[in-house]
């Protein structure tokens, strides 16, 4: 039976600010990427989100981003590979502490926002991030854009990788995501998004914004948790997959060192 993981970015509030319906989303998704304090999140939010994940049996991942609270980590910054390595180590370490203290196991790492997109096309940044993951714990799964430099870097280090696709984003001809600055970047229609996900998971392809078909690998599907109808959107995606015979479950950890 074909299977797919549903992942969601969570724990994105901080201080007095709360964002998203994490509790409800964790009843639908199978893995969570928890903000580590740079682009969003704070110690209390991290702890509570980890505890919720363990309570609901959802795989826990670190979601390191650029140090940009004001821009929510979605603005590119000129950073060196060494800086990328250092900030990735720092953020994974912070979340790892909360996971360990709660009696859980850290499952994966997925960069956030601009850092994710930069690592998708910049081989040096991708190498630095993959090396950081490897040095901390080589059994961690690294989530990256399907066909990206980050996936290739993870494979070179011998890490288990999970090729990621997006339910609510459109694609360019080279397999990258359409920039959010474009009016065609997002898919708002739930049925359209569900159809795109089903095609990517079952057929291994996606239609670009120019309506050409490109190949894609879909081990895990990202569902953004910060929209007004994020929970309903997630349920639609999961129900569509399960109705069509796709098993929805977290990425099984296969590598051991």
TrEMBL record:
Classification via CDD domains: LamB_YcsF_like (cd10787)
Record-listed E.C. numbers: 3.5.2.9
GO terms for MF: 5-oxoprolinase (ATP-hydrolyzing) activity
Keywords carried by this UniProt record: ATP-binding, Hydrolase, Nucleotide-binding
Catalytic activity reported: 5-oxo-L-proline + ATP + 2 H2O = L-glutamate + ADP + phosphate + H(+)
A Pfam family annotated for this UniProt entry: LamB_YcsF
Oligomer and partners: Forms a complex composed of PxpA, PxpB and PxpC.
Similarity comment: family membership: Belongs to the LamB/PxpA family.
Record function comment: Catalyzes the cleavage of 5-oxoproline to form L-glutamate coupled to the hydrolysis of ATP to ADP and inorganic phosphate.
Name of the protein this chain belongs to: 5-oxoprolinase subunit A
Natural source organism: Ferviditalea candida
């Amino acid at each position: 039976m074909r299977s797919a993981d549903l992942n969601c970015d969570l724990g994105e509030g901080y201080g007095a600010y709360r964002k998203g319906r994490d509790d409800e989303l964790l009843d639908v998704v199978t893995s969570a990427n928890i903000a580590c304090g740079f682009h969003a999140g704070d110690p209390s939010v991290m702890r509570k989100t980890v505890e919720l994940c363990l309570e609901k049996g959802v795989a826990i991942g670190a979601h390191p981003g650029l140090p940009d609270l004001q821009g929510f980590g979605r603005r590119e910054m000129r950073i060196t590979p060494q800086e990328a390595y250092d900030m990735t180590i720092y953020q994974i370490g912070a979340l790892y502490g909360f996971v360990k203290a709660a009696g859980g196991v850290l499952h994966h790492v997925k960069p956030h926002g601009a850092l994710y997109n930069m690592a998708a096309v910049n081989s040096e940044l991708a190498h630095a991030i993959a090396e950081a993951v490897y040095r901390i714990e080589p059994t961690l799964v690294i989530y990256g854009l399907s066909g990206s430099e980050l996936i290739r870097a993870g494979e070179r280090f011998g890490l288990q990788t999970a090729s990621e696709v997006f339910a609510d984003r459109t694609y360019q001809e080279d397999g990258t995501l359409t920039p959010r600055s474009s009016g065609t970047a997002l898919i708002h229609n739930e049925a359209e998004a569900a159809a795109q996900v089903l095609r990517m998971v079952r057929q291994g392809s996606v239609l670009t914004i120019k309506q050409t078909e490109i190949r894609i690998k879909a081990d895990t599907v990202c569902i953004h948790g910060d929209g007004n109808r994020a929970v309903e959107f997630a349920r639609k995606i999961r129900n569509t997959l399960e109705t069509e015979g796709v098993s929805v479950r977290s990425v099984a950890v296969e590598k051991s060192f």
